[in-house]
Here is the input.
Amino acid sequence: MINGKRVAVVMPAYNAELTLEATVREIPDLVDIRILVDDYSKDKTVELAKKLGLLVFVHDRNYGYGRNQQTCYREALAAGADVVIMVHPDYQYTPLLITAMASMVAYDVYDVVLGSRIIGGQALRGGMPFYKYVSNRFLTAFENLFLGVKLSEYHTGYRAFGSKVLTTLPLLENSSDFVFDNQMLAQCVHFAFRIGEVSCPTKYFEAASSINFRRSVKYGFGVLGTSLQFKLNKWGLTKLPRFSSQGRKLELDPGVKVKASPVVTSR
Here is the structure.
């Protein structure tokens, strides 16, 4: 808990058995709620997560990264979280920065905080493939131009949100795939939430998850499409539910209680 605010860490997982324990080991004690949502892994991620004392939720099939995040945020809010930090359980980002990121939200400095791999020039030294670095810089420049903000990167898997952000954004209008991350940030800009960044070292290694070249290309085109849609919506040329206060939001059931055991969810 920070400044009287309950802090939750959520981990969208898929085949994270090899790196999960190292990730959990670095989560600070101040975190009140620790949730892992498993997207139908083929390894022993679920069994290990239970042994580590996490609140575990299991999808009944592989729905995709974006759908996984929706479940993460829904269950964190249902558990009473005021600040929610999403970190990948592949140990590519250190959870030691959770305290700093959560504090910036809990003390109302920012509504959203991103762990940037670009600030400080650590990305390439941390092993980020050169083509990923170049595409990251290009896409970020494109997005800054079209969204009218100035962030160092939009593609990090390390993010902190205030609960108001998660209940305001029409997250159910977003993709179930990796471009969900980008769409969510575009929504944050549209709804005028304050976005801050902290420098975050990154580690690329064999066990860390990383999408292949084909899916990276698909993601890149999705990012370009999201930026164009944002601009067209701002100009009034389109009216997209993703950028509307009437868009579908997370469905929260106040009667639902979090259980420290796997549950099947397909919402």
Summary: The chain has one domain: 7-239.
